[in-house]
C-alpha cells in the first residue's frame, strides 16, 4: 500500500475524477452499500478542501487553498500566545450534515517547519441513508520539523445512518502529529443511542517512503456488531482516540504521560499504549457522557502539548 499523492503536485484535473473523492479498496461490507449506478454525491454533495501551509516571516500561513462547497474554511487565526507561529484553522460544512451519497475529501499539507491546528466548527451530523452511505477521506501530510494537530469535533450518527471515514497521515521522521476522533452515540434525547446502521472509521499512518506505521479501525454495525458488547464499548456510550506521532520523546514516556493524565479523569475508562514501529503513543477513551470524554481527551492533549511543545492546550474559542 502506498501513500496518496499530495494534491498540489497534480494540477487541477484530479478534482473532476470521481476516483479522487470516492474511497477505494473498501471492506466488503462497506463496498456492498455503495450505489455505483448513480453519480457520486448529490448537487453540492462532493466537498473538497486542499491546503498547503508553510512558515512565512516567523508564522505559519496558507500558501495554497482550494475548496469546493459544502466544505469551506474560515481564515486562519493565531490564537495561542505560547505558540504564536501556529495557524488555527476551522473547517465548516454548509447544510445540516452528511447525507446519503455525500463524498468529502480533505487534503492538508503542513510543509517543513509549519505549525498547524485543524479542527471543525461544530460536530458532524450523519443523517439516515436508505441506500448508499456517506464517506469522508482525510489525507494529512507533515513535513520535517512540522507540527500538525487534527482534532475535529465529534461525529453524531443519526438512526439509520451509514458512514465510512478514512484518515491517512504521512509524517516525516522529524514531524509531530496529534490526531483525535470522537464518536457520540447519536440523538440520545430522541431515543437513538447507537441506532445507526454502520459506523466505520480507519486511521492509518505512514512514513514518506510509504512504510505503514499503524492502522486503527473502529467498526460498529448494530445489531450485528453491537456497540455495547464487552469487546467494544461495554456500558459506555462515547468513544474517543488520541494518537501522537513523534520522535521528540520515547514512546514509553509518552504512553505513561497519557496514561497518567487520563487516570485523573472521572467517569471514563481509558488507557494508553505505545504505537508500533516506535512511532509514538496512542490513547483510547470510553466515556459515560460526551462532557466527561471531552474533558479526558483535552487533559491528554494538554499533557502532550506541554511535554512536546512547551505550551498548554489553548482555548479554541468555540463558545
Automatic annotation (TrEMBL):
It is found in: Cytoplasm. One of its GO terms (cellular component) is cytoplasm. Pfam families: UreD (PF01774). It comes from the Bacteria. The keyword Chaperone applies. Its main location: cytoplasm. Keywords: Chaperone, Cytoplasm, Nickel insertion. Transmembrane segments: none annotated. GO terms for molecular function: nickel cation binding. The keyword Isomerase does not apply. Required for maturation of urease via the functional incorporation of the urease nickel metallocenter. UreD, UreF and UreG form a complex that acts as a GTP-hydrolysis-dependent molecular chaperone, activating the urease apoprotein by helping to assemble the nickel containing metallocenter of UreC. The UreE protein probably delivers the nickel. Belongs to the UreD family. PANTHER family: UREASE ACCESSORY PROTEIN D (PTHR33643). This is Urease accessory protein UreD. It comes from Blastococcus mobilis. The lineage of its organism: Bacteria, Bacillati, Actinomycetota, Actinomycetes, Geodermatophilales.
